[in-house]
Write a structure and sequence with these properties.
Blueprint (H helix, E strand, L loop, with lengths): L11 H9 L10 E5 L6 H8 L2 H5 L3 E5 L3 H9 L5 E5 L3 H4 L6 E10 L3 E6 L12 E4 L4 H12 L8 E4 L2 H9 L5 E5 L2 H6 L4 E6 L8 E7 H6 L1 H20 L1 H12 L6 H8 L2 E3 L2 H8 L7 H15 L10 H4 L7
Parallel strand pairs: 1-2, 1-3, 6-7, 6-8
Antiparallel strand pairs: 3-10, 4-10, 4-11, 5-8, 5-9
Length: about 325
Amino acid sequence: MLKSFRHAWVAAAAFCAMAFGAPPHAGAETLILGHSTWVGYGPFYIAREKGFFAEEGVDIELQIMENTPLKMGALMAGQIDLVASTADEFPIYMKPGTPVRYILAVDNSNGGDGVVANKDIATVADLKGRTVAFEEGSVSQFFINALLLDAGLTQDDVDAVNMTATDAGVAFAAGRVDAAVTWEPHLSQGANTEHGHRLIDSSQTPGLIVDVVAVTEETATEHADEMRAFVRAWQRALDFLRTDPDEGFRIMADGVGGWLSDPVEFEAVVTGIEYLDLDRNREMYGTPEDPGPLHKTLSDAITIWSGFGKVQVSGLTATEVLDGSYLD
């Protein structure tokens, strides 16, 4: 899903202004949401332009922040209030003593991400001992590790080659690696080579690559009404998109901008994801008695990133992070 754009670096001056300036919401009721350039976050702009945030009783300022460490650090420091990113990323940046809560799942990868492999590799288990290209520290590394975990393997069981998702797809198409974790269009390009096929894609792993909105526990408690208003506005934005897709895609492309500023391109990329309304959120979250896919995704992320020494919070569990109380 072209997630490399989620991790691109922007000007250092912009970083410093956001990271080290005074908290933007000090003394004001405006809540800052930081997000990268991604189609999944487009409905935030519908909610803003159509007045849904205001009508529901919350003032949201949208800030595009491409650098993940900066964005997460600003959340932990209380310099911004909400962050939208992939569910697997937050455990890496959570700080001891600053609990984080996932209040909303916004989109689910639905075929846009996957693994292409040589035709003699029929299952994930068959990757054992083979060269697999993916970008370390990215959602691609999480994705392949989650798949390996379910197959009873770990990253140590494959010959990992560190490449960006684009480069991994190109390397596979050229026959330089046995498999690659990539996204469209490289996923289809690799699958269409004479030696390759689509081993698995995200349409077969619902909830594994999912974007969420997270806040600190302090924000969730002190601004509980605003969090519920934010969720209601999200649902209204999705309803608007269904009833008026032409205007909806125009608004989203204008708002998100960057490489997605063309509504046609924006809509084309959206085909690889699924926007998650409140009913789908309830399915993703599940219940304490019957946890949904998001619980497993976050549990896997904690296990995987802990195994690489990247989780700082001891004893972190998915149950304490997932907060579905704002979905009512």
